[in-house]
Amino acid sequence: xxxxxxxxxxxxxxxxxxxxxxxxxxxxxxxxxxxxxxxxxxxxxxxxxxxxxxxxxxxxxxxxxxxxxxxxxxxxxxxxxxxxxxxxxxxxxxxxxxxxxxxxxxxxxxxxxxxxxxxxxxxxxxxxxxxxxxxxxxxxxxxxxxxxxxxxxxxxxxxxxxxxxxxxxxxxxxxxxxxxxxxxxxxxxxxxxxxxxxxxxxxxxxxxxxxxxxxxxxxxxxxxxxxxxxxxxxxxxxxxxxxxxxxxxxxxxxxxxxxxxxxxxxxxxxxxxxxxxxxxxxxxxxxxxxxxxxxxxxxxxxxxxxxxxxxxxxxxxxxxxxxxxxxxxxxxxxxxxxxxxxxxxx
Length: 346
Hints:
Blueprint: H1 3-15, E1 19-24, H2 29-41, H3 46-49, E2 67-74, H4 90-93, H5 103-118, E3 123-124, H6 134-140, E4 145-146, E5 152-153, E6 160-167, H7 188-192, H8 210-214, H9 239-242, H10 260-263, H11 269-273, H12 277-284, H13 296-309, H14 316-322, H15 328-341
Antiparallel strand pairs: 1-2, 2-6, 3-6, 4-5
């Protein structure tokens, strides 16, 4: 192990990262083959993955890059407020990429400063969307494995965030995972996926994934038949991870995530449906950045979908009120539900 690799590892350990690995940039080459293989298995997914092609060849944009530093942080330690449990995906609730109050975000800033200022390395990263194929890079570094639901797992299950930096020095630091593979014949993750997005192991159709359709996709949810299968999901989905036996007992609610206990009451279905544009832009959107400051309407459509799927009679008043919402799509969703479930009673 080189001195630079040791210093990066020691700094990562000091900051509290769960794992640290470093691979040569050439170790990413096979990722392109896996990427194309996935497209061939699900050709309809090409519109989604089109923007991800940038991850195949980082040298095209960063010709100076020689190594990839991969870090793993565990978020499966935070308390989940009852009123958002099962409604909002946990990775979004504890998204360290954009919340500067979180310890993990601050750790990333400090590690980058350390590599640049104290080790003299040139680095590059993409905090929101990754600068390389993160799961592939972490697996090449021996930090864990990718399981049948496509998520990356360490000894703490899949409840982990991955970060990566390109650096301009040839450094290598690999581990060897001892994680057992998925149980033979296990299909709990695919069975748990209500939309069929996860139709077989190690693949998926992202355009039919609940997380996609309730965040940056699903622009026409009132006319999306799959919305009837969203169950209790409002923003994101954890169903395939929750069903995984390799995640059993891995979540330990021992810590409070900064600011979440104050914000969580405002994220109830009823409060989202009545939320003001100003509150959304100031308090909610910065945390849930997949929807922009003009897309509160998308949250409200998601809530109406939830209300239709879960005891709509108890939400009749809210659905009726939403028929007069200022946004066309909210009115369209509310009218559709009203005409289907309540109009015959009038």
